[in-house]
Structure prediction request, 629 residues.
Amino acid sequence: MCGIFGVWNYQGVNGHTLRKVSTILRHRGPDDEGFLLINDGVASEYSGEDTSVKNLEPLPESIPAPFSILHRRLSILDLSAAGHQPMRLPNRGIYISFNGEIYNYEELRDQHDLETFTGTDTEVVLLLYAKLGEEAFSMFRGMWAMSILDLEKGKLILSRDRFGIKPLYYTDKFASLAFSSEIKPLLALPRIKPQWEREKLVQFLVYGVTSDPCETFFSGISAVKPGCYLTFDLETLRKEEHVFYDLRSRADEAEFAEDSFELRFEGSIKEHLISDLEVGSCLSGGLDSSTIVATAYPFVKQSFTCSFPNSPIDETGFAKQLTSARSDLQQHFTSPSSQDYFEAFDEIIRSQERPIGSASVFAQYSVMKLAKENGVTVLLDGQGADEVFGGYYPFAGAYLLSLLKSGNFSRFTKEMKLLKQNFNPKMEMAMMRSLFYSLPKGMRLLARKKNRLGFDLLSRHYKKIARGLSVPERGSSDFKELAIKSVGFGLLELLHYEDRNSMRFSIESRVPFLDHRLVEWALSQSPETLLNKGWTKNPIRELLDKKGLKDLAWRKDKLGFVVPQKAWRDELFPELKEKWKNLELDEVFDQQAMLDLLENPVSSSSAQSEFWRVYGLLRWLELFKVELI
Prediction:
């Protein structure tokens, strides 16, 4: 796992700029540092303070560097200096700066008779690209963000994995190109200002999201879309976007009649354990992380859990059940307080580079910090299971609606009763939430206004603007379509949090539920397979039961990765009030409504999340000195 950065025809960039950017990205790769500069078609390599390769000249501060690439390495495979990047194909004008893991790199090496000299997946990616070109991207299993500089073909390629597990940003203003694993390095460049459109801020306030799932929250800075790669002509910088993976198409084409969830999941876990360092796991106590630990054991022998003693949301007891049959599993727990959250809040915003959705982000942040303190660099995590296997509340509603629409009333009555019994007694509300996406735009807007705080926080003029904005299409009344949109919207946001929280502590976080073959298998199944007899995520439950964890497998309560947001807001009220009242608010906001939000009690969990989202928005605007345009 690494940090990448590069510029092409970006005037004003020199060695000092590159050193500054390298420092900004150091947390993504503290083990090695590399600089590649191109002048008149000639490539030269330089070193920095963390460079592992010997005999490279230190990067001069004053050297012009309008055509350059830098790399920060977190060493996971082949820990030697042989994995130094940017990596060049021997005797060829092709270079790569790669962030991620390709879990089938050994299989690809052998299949294509690639002669390698390192134990890295990076070298296999580079060799396979040289042999097959961009066709190679669809062959990779894993997570990645990469740049390939092909001087022979006169192009630069930016590629991102199928589901956007790893981030990759770029800006191509001013007849130049710059790209990076994070946004802060781009903001450090000449002429790049932290700006954002007021209209997008209004949409974010009203809906909690924007229409574009790849929104960066900074004008002029874009994200490479998941499952895509961009090509830039090195002479003209003309850009072309190419799609190498489309989940909707794959879900329609895939057939896995003879495959089982167990077979595919255990295959994914096996690949995600490939590492030259110890692999640990996050463990919330829920179904997904418990299934990961139970399947990865005994190769995973350390787990990390966020605990909230004496709180109804605490899942420590469930997490500890893993040791009943796995006595040598070393479990670590952390119990962050509201004060810990308040003190870390600004740092979290700087890491995330966007307003955070709720205080639950801090639970994950605390787990990553705990793993770092215990010397674990590679972690497994359960992201993706709820979106793919129908674990969220609206999936049950979509399933019940489909039974009604088909006229299968007897099955509907039976499934309604079982879901109330085994999942959630408020199934009528789940159906209403699912039905929401079948409503006309105007009715959806009215429903959102009624149930969200954001609309009331707008000034009169911007309330008028809000009424004309589109409703972000993040959900569906159809079960399969809901899964596809959940992957493309909500999951992408969670993966952003995952990447930033883990890399903040120089940790590589892996998500085995997002092996694309496993995702395609899940989307090829009928709702009855995933929601069986009132049990959500039934294939996961059955596997967990098979591994001797019956009580965990058939637990009925679903908490998610949550924190005691209401208690924390109450405990932090004096500190929040002090910061809140000192903020300079833009004309978008209604000043009195903002003060009322702080002063008035907030009861529901959704309103609590909105409160923290608004606070996060205000802190983000201030910390990044964002100019609204």
User: Anything to note?
Assistant: The chain has a mean pLDDT of 93. The CA atoms of residues 34 and 85 lie 6 Å apart. Residues 605-623 form the longest helix (19 residues).
